[in-house]
Design goal:
Structural class: mainly beta
Number of strands: 9
Largest sheet: 8 strands, antiparallel, barrel
Shape: elongated
Helix content: 10-25%
Distance between the termini: 48 Å
Number of helices: 1
Radius of gyration: 20 Å
Order of helices and strands: HEEEEEEEEE
Mean pLDDT: 85
């Protein structure tokens, strides 16, 4: 009898989660990124420690849980030593939006990112686990402005580059 009562009580706790109508949306977005590369003295001669770019985002959202794929490309940038380099990044994030009210959502993400540094000497590739945390301001139920911090720990140390920190601000449009 106690087991049945406990199961009934627990099911009542989850009932509000399923009371709302399921909503699936296609998500399109664009972000402005500032990427900071953690380099040592030797590596800073080849790559720049800060890159600015715009990224395209495509994904889907199902009641605040979704997947977003992204592609970032950077214009060629010159470092303090006069060496030009370019950075390309692509990957995917699992995204969780936790609404605080109708206007603000906390946003968390975990995903994968692949980085390619194009330098005059060689192309340097690495990938890693990408974690993100941010806030989204919803203008209405279809358009949101998002600001996030992303941390990437590279799985292979490339020329003493171990971590990459990124700040992004952008827009998300749900269809």
């Amino acid at each position: 009898m106690i087991k049945k009562f406990c199961c009934f009580f627990v099911s009542l706790l989850f009932l509000p989660c399923f009371a709302q109508k399921a909503q699936a949306h296609l998500v399109l977005g664009a972000d402005f990124y500032q990427t900071f590369v953690d380099t040592d003295r030797e590596t800073e001669r080849l790559v720049k420690d800060k890159y600015d770019n715009i990224a395209a985002v495509l994904g889907f959202d199902f009641n605040g849980v979704g997947v977003e794929g992204f592609y970032q490309t950077f214009n060629e940038a010159e470092n303090d030593y006069g060496v030009s380099s370019k950075l390309n990044v692509y990957g995917a994030d699992f995204v969780l939006r936790l609404p605080t009210n109708e206007y603000f959502d906390f946003v968390g993400s975990i995903g994968y990112a692949h980085y390619t540094f194009e330098t005059p000497v060689d192309d340097i590739d690495s990938e890693g686990l990408r974690l993100g945390l941010g806030l989204q301001f919803n203008l209405n139920k279809y358009i949101g402005l998002r600001a996030m911090y992303h941390y990437t720990a590279l799985t292979e140390e490339i020329d003493n580059i171990k971590t990459i920190n990124e700040f992004s601000a952008g827009i998300r449009i749900k269809f």
